[in-house]
Amino acid sequence: MKPVLTKFILFILMITSGCRHSVPPEENDPGDLNYTNELSLTQQWFNGKWKLTSVTAMNPTLTVPNVQLVVGNNQIIVIRDEKQTDRVSFELSKIRSGFQLTTDAQPGEDNWYVRNPSLQVSSNRLLLQTAGSESSTFRFKRME
């Protein structure tokens, strides 16, 4: 009985680990991954220009889209393929596992990363993670 249970658990682990697809970063540079736990530092570091470097999602993505976020004055401008596709207002709040980015983003084709994700930020790296059935992780690097 014990070997059957062990094989079943291993089977379940293999299935769940194989369900995610990751697009590798443009660079292998891990950057500064010391994410802050302070709200004031998060607000300070979040401002700036960010470039999407990798995506981990349930649905396979063949390439990382050419996306930039320009953050300032409590607004995020979303730029895809050098065209502005959205502008949203936001607020940051502390949650148990980091920070919550709450935006007024309306559902759209090119703004999935700014629809109320959790957020972690370091001086030059940004991690946005959406929740729910279509959970995804978006990694950005600072451009400026």
DSSP summary: helix tally = 2
Helix content: 10-25%
Radius of gyration, Cα only, in angstroms?
17 Å
Strand order of the largest sheet: 2-3-4-5-6-7-8-9
End-to-end separation in angstroms reads 59 Å
Average pLDDT reading: 81
Question: How large is the share of residues in beta strands?
Answer: 35-45%
Report the biggest beta sheet as strand number plus sense, adding barrel if it closes.
8 strands, antiparallel, barrel
Structure in words:
This protein has 144 residues and is an alpha+beta fold. 17% of the residues lie in helices and 42% in strands. It has helices at 2-17, 39-46; strands spanning 21-23, 48-57, 67-72, 75-80, 83-95, 98-103, 118-121, 125-129, 136-142. Strands 2-3-4-5-6-7-8-9 form an eight-stranded antiparallel barrel. The longest helix has 16 residues, at 2-17. Mean pLDDT is 81; it is low at 18-29.
Summarize the structure.
With 144 residues, the chain is an alpha+beta fold. It is built from 2 helices and 9 strands.
Which helices and strands, and how do they pair?
Elements: H1 2-17, E1 21-23, H2 39-46, E2 48-57, E3 67-72, E4 75-80, E5 83-95, E6 98-103, E7 118-121, E8 125-129, E9 136-142
Antiparallel strand pairs: 1-2, 2-3, 2-9, 3-4, 4-5, 5-6, 6-7, 7-8, 8-9
Features:
144 residues, alpha+beta, 2 helices
